[in-house]
Amino acid sequence: MTKILIPSSGPEDWKQFLAKPDLHWAMGYSARTLAHAWEAQCGLPSEIAALTEVAFGPGELLFAVPEHKTPLPGGRRESQ
User: Fold this and answer.
1) Distance between CA atoms of 7 and 5, rounded to whole angstroms?
2) Which of 29, 47, 74, 78 could bridge across to 69 with cysteines, CB 3.0–4.6 Å?
3) Cα distance between residue 33 and residue 76, in whole Å
4) Are 78 and 71 in contact (CB under 8 A)?
5) CA distances to 31, 68, 77 from 74, in Å
6) Over the stretch 28-73, which tens digit does the pLDDT of each residue have?
7) 64: three-class secondary structure by DSSP
Protein backbone atom coordinates (compact mmCIF):
# COMPACT_ATOMS: atom_id res chain seq x y z
CA MET A 1 0.00 0.00 0.00
CA THR A 2 1.28 3.47 -0.84
CA LYS A 3 1.43 6.45 1.52
CA ILE A 4 -0.86 8.58 -0.66
CA LEU A 5 -3.62 10.38 1.26
CA ILE A 6 -6.41 9.12 -1.00
CA PRO A 7 -7.54 5.61 -1.76
CA SER A 8 -5.26 5.07 -4.72
CA SER A 9 -4.85 1.95 -6.79
CA GLY A 10 -2.53 3.72 -9.24
CA PRO A 11 -1.82 6.92 -11.18
CA GLU A 12 -5.20 6.97 -12.95
CA ASP A 13 -6.89 7.68 -9.61
CA TRP A 14 -5.16 11.08 -9.51
CA LYS A 15 -6.93 12.36 -12.64
CA GLN A 16 -10.14 13.14 -10.73
CA PHE A 17 -8.38 15.88 -8.73
CA LEU A 18 -7.29 17.95 -11.74
CA ALA A 19 -8.97 21.27 -12.46
CA LYS A 20 -9.42 20.26 -16.12
CA PRO A 21 -8.90 16.49 -16.31
CA ASP A 22 -9.55 16.15 -20.04
CA LEU A 23 -7.00 18.88 -20.81
CA HIS A 24 -4.27 18.17 -18.23
CA TRP A 25 -4.18 14.35 -18.28
CA ALA A 26 -2.09 13.62 -21.35
CA MET A 27 1.18 11.85 -22.12
CA GLY A 28 4.08 14.22 -21.41
CA TYR A 29 2.03 16.61 -19.24
CA SER A 30 3.29 17.22 -15.71
CA ALA A 31 0.15 16.02 -13.85
CA ARG A 32 0.19 12.59 -15.47
CA THR A 33 3.98 12.28 -15.38
CA LEU A 34 4.13 13.17 -11.68
CA ALA A 35 1.32 10.76 -10.78
CA HIS A 36 3.24 7.93 -12.42
CA ALA A 37 6.54 8.97 -10.77
CA TRP A 38 5.06 9.12 -7.27
CA GLU A 39 3.08 5.89 -7.59
CA ALA A 40 6.12 4.00 -8.93
CA GLN A 41 8.06 4.62 -5.69
CA CYS A 42 7.81 3.25 -2.18
CA GLY A 43 8.57 6.67 -0.74
CA LEU A 44 9.99 9.81 -2.28
CA PRO A 45 10.80 9.76 -6.01
CA SER A 46 14.59 9.73 -6.43
CA GLU A 47 14.65 13.23 -7.99
CA ILE A 48 12.76 14.72 -5.02
CA ALA A 49 14.90 12.83 -2.49
CA ALA A 50 18.11 14.10 -4.15
CA LEU A 51 16.92 17.73 -4.03
CA THR A 52 15.69 17.71 -0.44
CA GLU A 53 18.60 15.65 0.92
CA VAL A 54 21.06 18.41 0.08
CA ALA A 55 19.23 20.89 2.32
CA PHE A 56 17.65 18.67 4.96
CA GLY A 57 19.37 15.28 4.94
CA PRO A 58 17.64 11.98 4.17
CA GLY A 59 13.87 12.19 4.19
CA GLU A 60 10.92 9.86 4.58
CA LEU A 61 7.51 10.15 2.96
CA LEU A 62 4.85 10.10 5.67
CA PHE A 63 1.90 10.91 3.40
CA ALA A 64 1.22 12.67 0.10
CA VAL A 65 -1.72 14.79 -1.05
CA PRO A 66 -2.16 14.67 -4.83
CA GLU A 67 -3.09 17.94 -6.53
CA HIS A 68 -3.22 19.89 -3.25
CA LYS A 69 -4.34 23.45 -3.97
CA THR A 70 -1.74 26.01 -2.90
CA PRO A 71 -2.25 29.79 -3.09
CA LEU A 72 0.55 31.65 -4.88
CA PRO A 73 1.35 35.26 -3.97
CA GLY A 74 0.19 37.54 -6.79
CA GLY A 75 -1.62 34.72 -8.55
CA ARG A 76 -5.22 34.81 -9.69
CA ARG A 77 -5.95 31.28 -8.57
CA GLU A 78 -4.44 28.44 -6.60
CA SER A 79 -1.84 26.16 -8.09
CA GLN A 80 -2.21 22.38 -7.91
Assistant:
1) 7
2) 78
3) 25
4) yes
5) 23, 18, 9
6) 998 899 899 889 988 888 888 999 999 999 999 888 888 788 888 9
7) strand
